[in-house]
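To whoever is on call:

I kicked off a structure prediction for a single chain this morning and the downstream step that reads the tokens threw a length-mismatch warning. I double-checked the sequence; it's 447 residues and nothing unusual in it as far as I can see. Pasting both halves so you can look.
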Amino acid sequence: MSTRDDKPNEVVPPTAFPLATSVTDVADDRPETTKPDLPKVSARYIWFMVLAQFGVFVAFITPLAISLSIRVQELAPGHEEYLGYITGAGAFAVMLTAPLAGVLSDRTRTKIGRRRPWMIGGTILGVISLFVMGLAPDVLILGLGWILAQLGWGQVLANLQISTADRLPESQRGKVAGLAGFATQIAPVFGLVIAGGFAQRSVLLFLVPGLVGVILVALFVLLVHEDDSRALTFAEKLSIKAIAKKYVYNPKHYPDYSWNWAGRFLFYFGLTLNTTFTAFFFASKLGVEVSEVAPLIATIGGTGILATTLGAIGGGFLSDRLRRRRLFVLTAAVIFAAGAILMAFAPDVPLLIAGSLLTSVGIGAFSAVDQALLLDVLPERDTDAGRFMSITGFATSIPQALAPIIAPLFLAVGATGTDKNYELLYIVAGVVTILGGLSVLRIKSVR
């Protein structure tokens, strides 16, 4: 079955769609079409979902936060730039493979469902990656291990989130997104505490946080039921050409999804502009060396977790209760922008901290409510949820790659000597995030 546009002469790529048993079984492919809501999920599903995402972040983010840095220092002293090459290669690998994996997840037919096999396989690959990184004899193998970690643990996380698209009704999406946001905020801190005890033992530095991930993902896989997917059939056969087409879509077919994608892209572009040069900005603001701002950044980071949690849980629960998403997304963007601008013009440390905490509240609220909004407008939920969830990933990965490259253009405006125009950079960051919040107001099918 091929999707059709209002223009008869326009060729539209076909999309995967299961064969219907009758005419009435064929779902409209437009997100604006009202469909019966899903039944509420149990507390068991919610808590095991949140715990599983917590476990993945402990296993996956701990290497990024500390373990990789320690290993790079061991294997190539004085070459800190290798860490950037390694993390960049991992991000690029995910961009290339995520939509393909999403499509294959959608089409997986097993007794235990579509998503759980990918969680199991991803966990196994993730554990292998931890061994590779812990035992790596050189930086090249360390980089290969991180790419495997991105592919393995990344697929576990992706399929957990796709499961929420499969299962969560509108009334629970904000709540679950808020709780998951809270869990993923505290997970890196938990991972760092664990890793701190094994800094001198390379393998355990990776494996102990990984064990937490394995246990919590296993609980979800073993204790949360997923329907048998062996009866699924598809009209379109997969080929290289068909798979390539699934990396893109026609925005005119799914305008609400497209506005959500654009809003997320703009918000994360502004967020990355704000966070990439934080240490340099603080040093410039306070007139000290970059190395001297580490304690301040650590303090702000600790309190920022609480602020982000407040935004995530508060925004998620309230958006469910009031049945409104767009207003909360815009409010989150405005709060973030206010914090960024306050930081830009803060005359002292207390206001600098206050501005940073405001940005953290905005980040938490946006991430939770926008995730719920994404599930509200996700196209072809029954057949291509994995594909469209993966395409949404580009809305965060592309800004994270582009913003650091573009930021120096703003830093150079009016700059003299070694001074940089951080004020302009932070103002631009705030404006861009507000544009992201305004974008979702164009969504028609969700309040």
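Update from on-call: the warning came from a stale cache, not from the record. Cleared it. Sanity check on the structure: The mean pLDDT is 85.
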